[in-house]
Write a structure and sequence with these properties.
The complex is a heterodimer of chains A (460) and B (704). Chain A is mainly α. Chain A is built from 21 helices and no strands. Chain B has 3 domains: 340 residues, Zn peptidases (Aminopeptidase, 3-Layer(aba) Sandwich), CATH 3.40.630.10; 54 residues, no CATH class; 198 residues, no CATH class. The radius of gyration of chain B is 30 Å and the shape is globular. The chains are: A mainly alpha (460), B alpha/beta (704). Chains A and B meet through helix 17, helix 20 and helix 21 of A and helix 1 and helix 20 of B. Chain B: Keywords: Membrane, Transmembrane, Transmembrane helix.
């Protein structure tokens, strides 16, 4: 259970590496103009434009430049001003580095909680020795290092886009739910929904987390264990053990409504608070109705068809106008369709369920960026012990590297050299979507396989 | 949905049936050796067959209509060209001053009624910008840094405004000349361009502006044209507060131009004319041996193997052959023209063609041996110059701005001193240029109809991307298959590894990653070397090599024992995966580099085996595999590979350490992606191959 040696050194090195990058190459990288990094929703350049419009007492949403939250404008807007002798967006980059660090710390804390709960439930099931014989990685440390050293998250952090903040609030919601702090979970969920809409579906895993507690093997295993313990319960030592395990088993079964109610109340409070702040900041500049139209409406109707790494832009550039609404509904319902079956199948592992939801939504969202992948890859590493037997891991690894190198080259071929066309770039987008779906399918199936092996071990 | 699939996989363990694609992949992986041998051989043979598969070119864009109008270029224009060239030669002899020629050209431009100005530029220091091909925005600030230097070049530019155009498009003529020491051929190229220019100033059909750039090539043709284009596309805003340096530069510019004592006002104000539809670089070569016909040589390769649209070459070829009866040439490699094995192969193909015609008259593989050898030599030169990634002339500067451009090098049938030869030569050349311009003038859109990705096997034959990708795909197809085979093989045999599950490969990946990181550091070392006070190429190379070896040692220290505990099969599989990603990436950036690189890397990667591995096979096989490995490792070593290539492709190539250094210097000063390929993909792959070759198979060696 010991943590990874030199965790703090590695984490500090990751932070130092980010600083080094944006001190040494302030202008050379041009990451902010890459479609893979900055989407119309998260681009800091657009935010600066919105801030400027707001300073000139115009609606920040006029001119279809800015589509983010008005709260981000007030928070980051003053930092986007150019300072003499400093690289552009210097202070914003500082903020993003800190945000990344906080997110990594929260992932680590979540991982520690998950490890502890895993340890406890395995102890109850008497499986600690056979399962852990193959070696255990401290998943908290590992996941936070994966998040910090992931090239995608480094690129997002350098690339002057606001996705680090989106990621932070999502992680905050998950952490709050894992440590059963309803107010923090509600805060994270409301803000994540406010900033990018798609995290709204995380309400299912958050409620499951608050209600049932952290990830554990399926509850019927505990019942099985208990029943077998009772049937063999003649000897005294077994009795003691079953007596010890029974409350744990029961507590897993119980759904604590009070926490969920607290969460609901808190979410309501935070929601009112967010809307209130937004209405203050947009007073006489368009109001809330324009905000909803220009943020959520922009996300849902896929107005901006400039190329990105997703698949929707190409499709909606091709589709006939009279089919457009139909396909908009189809694409968005696609995400919603997944919610229920997955929630039923994975209800005993709500944290993993949250990862699956995030991965699916980042695959099907209207303006995806590599920042979303950075988030779900970091969360994936939280389950490194359970997913130790995942298939195709090497294939996926190579695929991610290949696609992330190929995508800028194809973009260059299409936009700057003029020798390729949109299909070249879209092909990498398709490959990327395929990789993500393979990742989701494989991780879910290996998680279920892990549960099955646990069942076999208990039965044996 | 994944939950549903899960239900299926539970039953999969009981039932042997699985999805078709999985079974196919398993089949391929199981027979990986056979598949890889077959694919490699098929790839090499189909690459040699490319000249047979080449198609005839055709003008794809209908709007071009080459040769549909009668030429207006007459004997009067020839006399004009003659007089212009003579004046320049005589004037050059008298004064030998660069500014005088620029002034002379400027004066003539103004006389024919064109707008004209001087463009002053400073030779750019060679910067090390490895990712230049990738970044889209060119910084115009950096070139103003060395304003204070007294060395400068002076281009004279003339613009004819089109009577029928809206001034939004232009065609560019470029004639490079050395202002310090003008030669007779340069004077004739200037004369030819001037006569066409003066003709075009009178015609009524012009719909695109004509820009004539007389480029001062004393610092290199490319530098002059490139700096003019940079100014064309990056307007300097004098009102900007940050550009005080630019202001100073302009003042100084005026100061220098005072020397010329310019007549008209505003003759150093930069003027523009719309987006460029096409650009022609005109050069004249003098010949001393007699030939049957005047000829024109086409150079088209721009940086990183980019080619202009094939239609531009098509119209030049069509007009030159069918209207002006010029002979059209493109570069070819003399080594291949003389090679006996190629002749033999050609004979064989010819026989096969005759035989197949007997079998079925519809099969048309009729190619003569001589045609085949010619085609291969031309193809080799096409591949070689694309693979270098260095433009073959000043037309390369245009391609960076997505303008299609080619260089036309005219050479007469005998010496230009002969009056008759000169007359017909100038007439034909002028008519060809006029025809091409008239054709391009008809264009309604940018060149887009025809191919951008092609290889030429003759002036009228090409291999398109769809065809030449097949040999390459066949060549690198074994890489993923063998990687998968090694990967799964390792999983079965070494079940008792320390790390459980499917994440064992992480250690091997760590080794491969560190070696690639080392290669990136090595590729950046020349940047540091230029700060050191070293002069000779041999010293620089040895310092570079020493530093590289030192850092490699450091990498091994960091890796520690890890580098020998990850299992050679896993290491090889990860290395092959990295190589295949790198090769497929390079095939998109610069196909020819990837093709040549694949021919070197693929056999090396596939055949490499630890020398200390114990096998059941006989001693003969073992010796064979070791010698194969050693030979491939020797050929794969970048300097050796470079010198072999040089010996094969370049006629007068000197081989040695200093030649190697110059070679690399050329590659990176031209920001060629080939340099990156060589150091980021080829070099680490080679090092890893050596690593695997020397891998100690601990468990087995203890037995042996």
């Amino acid at each position: 259970m010991a943590g990874i040696r030199g965790y703090w050194i590695l984490a500090a090195a990751a932070i130092a590496f980010r600083f080094l990058l944006f001190v040494c190459f302030p202008k050379d990288l041009h990451l902010g103009s890459r479609p893979e990094v900055a989407t119309p929703l998260t681009s800091l350049r657009r935010l600066a434009e919105g801030y400027w419009l707001k300073q000139a007492s115009m609606s920040p949403y006029s001119g279809s430049m800015y589509h983010g939250s008005p709260l981000l404008l007030s928070l980051l807007g003053p930092l986007t001003k150019r300072v003499e002798g400093r690289p552009p967006h210097f202070y914003c980059s500082l903020v993003f580095v800190i945000v990344d660090f906080v997110a990594a710390i929260l992932i680590r804390a979540t991982g520690k909680k998950l490890m502890f709960s895993r340890y406890k439930s395995l102890q109850v099931l008497d499986l600690l020795k056979p399962v852990d014989a193959s070696g255990v990685v401290d998943s908290g440390d590992f996941a936070s290092l994966v998040y910090l050293w992931n090239p995608l998250s480094i690129v997002t952090c350098m690339g002057s886009s606001t996705s680090p903040i989106d990621n932070l609030v999502v992680i905050m919601a998950i952490y709050g739910a894992c440590s059963r702090i309803s107010s923090l979970a509600a805060f994270g969920w409301v803000f994540a929904t406010h900033l990018s809409l798609y995290p709204a579906i995380l309400i299912v895993p958050i409620i499951l987390l608050l209600g049932y507690g952290l990830d554990a093997p399926p509850s019927k295993l505990f019942l099985l264990k208990n029943s077998s313990a009772v049937s063999f319960g003649a000897s005294s030592e077994n009795k003691v053990k079953s007596g010890a395990s029974r409350p744990t088993g029961n507590s897993i079964q119980n759904f604590s409504w009070t926490r969920v109610l607290h969460f609901m109340l808190w979410s309501f409070v935070w929601m009112c608070y967010v809307l209130f702040l937004c209405s203050i900041s947009l007073k006489e500049l368009g109001g809330l109705s324009e905000m909803f139209k220009k943020t959520y409406g922009f996300i849902l109707t896929v107005e901006d068809l400039s190329p990105n790494i997703g698949v929707l832009w190409y499709f909606f550039a091709e589709v006939f106008v009279f089919f457009r609404n139909f396909f908009l509904i189809v694409f968005h319902v696609n995400i919603l369709f997944m919610i229920l079956p997955l929630a039923i199948r994975l209800k005993h592992r709500p944290c993993f369920l949250a990862f699956v939801y995030i991965a699916i939504s980042s695959m099907l969202k209207s303006y995806p960026s590599v920042g979303d992948s950075a988030l779900y890859l970091g969360l994936l590493a939280l389950f490194s012990n359970e997913l130790a037997d995942m298939q195709f891991s090497f294939f996926l690894f190579c695929g991610y590297i290949g696609v992330s190198l190929l995508s800028p080259v194809m973009h260059n071929l299409w936009i700057w050299r003029g020798t390729g066309n949109a299909n070249f770039y879209f092909a990498t987008g398709l490959a990327y979507a395929c990789l993500q779906s393979v990742l989701v399918v494989e991780s879910v199936s290996s998680m279920l396989k892990h549960d099955r092996t646990l069942t076999k071990m208990v039965e044996a | 949905m994944p939950a549903d699939e899960q239900g299926e996989t539970t039953q999969q363990e009981k039932r042997p049936r699985s999805r078709l694609i999985v079974r196919l992949a398993a089949f391929l992986v199981a027979h990986s050796i056979l598949v890889s041998v077959l694919c490699c051989i098929a790839g090499l043979i189909s690459f040699l067959l490319l000249p047979v598969l080449a198609k005839n070119t055709y003008v794809s864009e209908n709007a071009l209509m080459p040769g549909s109008a009668n030429s207006m270029f007459s004997s009067q224009d020839v006399q004009k060209a003659n007089r212009f060239a003579d004046d320049i030669i005589n004037g050059g002899d008298a004064k030998a001053s660069g500014i005088e020629i620029a002034r002379f050209i400027h004066q003539h431009m103004v006389d024919v009624g064109a707008e004209s100005y001087y463009h002053k530029f400073h030779p750019r220091a060679n910067n090390f910008q490895p990712l230049h091909f990738f970044s889209s925005i060119t910084n115009n600030l950096e070139m103003q840094d060395n304003c204070s230097s007294t060395s400068f070049g002076l281009n004279s530019v003339g613009i004819i405004r089109a009577p029928r155009g809206d001034g939004k498009e232009a065609i560019v003529l470029v004639t490079p000349y050395n202002s310090q020491k003008i030669t007779k051929t340069e004077a004739f190229s200037l004369g030819m361009a001037f006569s066409v220019f003066s003709l075009l100033s009178q015609v009524t059909w012009l719909a695109k502006d004509i820009v004539w750039l007389a480029a001062d090539s004393q610092y290199g043709e490319y530098a002059a044209v490139d700096s003019w284009l940079k100014d064309y596309y990056n307007p300097a805003f004098l009102s900007d507060t940050g550009n005080i340096g630019a202001n100073a530069c302009y003042e100084e510019n005026n100061h220098h131009l005072d020397v010329i004592k310019v007549e008209g006002p505003k003759c150093n104000v930069y003027k523009r004319a719309g987006t460029m539809a096409a650009a022609l670089v005109i050069k004249v070569m003098d010949k001393h041996e007699m030939e049957e016909r005047d000829s024109v040589t086409i150079y088209a390769e721009a940086s990183n193997g980019q080619m202009p649209n094939l239609d531009l070459i098509n119209i030049v070829h069509y007009l030159a052959v069918h209207r002006q009866s010029l002979r059209v040439r493109i570069g070819s490699m003399s080594y291949f023209l003389k090679a006996a094995w190629l002749k033999f192969f050609g004979e064989m193909l010819q026989q096969i063609g005759i035989f197949s015609k007997h079998m079925n008259p519809k099969w048309k593989i009729d190619i003569t041996s001589a045609d085949y050898v010619d085609g291969t030599a031309t193809l080799a030169s096409s591949v070689y110059y694309q693979a270098l990634g260095v433009p073959t002339g000043s037309h390369g500067a245009f391609r960076d701005y997505q303008v299609d451009a080619i260089t036309l090098e005219f050479s007469p049938r005998s010496s230009l001193n002969n009056e008759n030869v000169r007359y017909s030569f100038l007439l034909r050349g002028g008519r060809l240029i006029e025809g091409v311009i008239r054709s391009v003038n008809n264009l309604l859109e940018k060149f887009h109809q025809s191919f951008f990705l092609y290889l030429l096997t003759a002036p009228h034959k090409f291999v398109s991307v769809g065809v030449y990708m097949i040999p390459f795909a066949l060549l690198i197809a074994p890489l993923p298959i063998v990687a998968a085979a090694l990967f799964s093989d390792n999983g079965n045999s070494d079940a008792k590894e320390i790390i459980s599950g499917s994440w064992k490969w992480l250690r091997a990946a760590k080794v491969v990653f560190m070696i690639h990181l080392w290669a990136i550091i090595v590729s950046l070392l020349p940047y540091l070397l230029f700060q050191l006070p070293l002069s000779t190429a041999i010293k620089l190379t040895s310092v570079w090599a020493a530093l590289a070896i030192c850092t490699l040692q450091m990498v091994y220290l960091i890796l520690g024992t890890c580098s020998y505990h990850c299992g050679w099969k896993l290491l090889k599989s990860v290395m092959i995966a990295a190589a295949s990603i790198g090769l497929s990436l390079m095939s998109i950036i610069n196909f020819s580099t990837a093709q040549i690189g694949a021919m070197l890397i693929v056999p090396m990667c596939l055949l490499v085996q630890p020398v200390r591995k114990e096998t059941q096979a006989g001693i003969v096989l073992k010796v064979l595999s070791v010698t194969c490995n050693l030979a491939l490792a020797l050929v794969g070593f970048p300097p050796v590979a470079l010198s072999i290539m040089k010996g094969m492709f370049e006629d007068s190539g000197s081989v040695g350490i200093s030649a190697f250094w110059e070679w690399t210097q050329i590659l990176w000063t031209w920001n060629s992606a080939t340099y990156l390929y060589l150091l980021w993909i080829h070099l680490p792959c080679w090092v890893l191959c050596l690593h695997i070759f020397l891998y100690p198979c601990t468990r087995r060696s203890s037995k042996a």
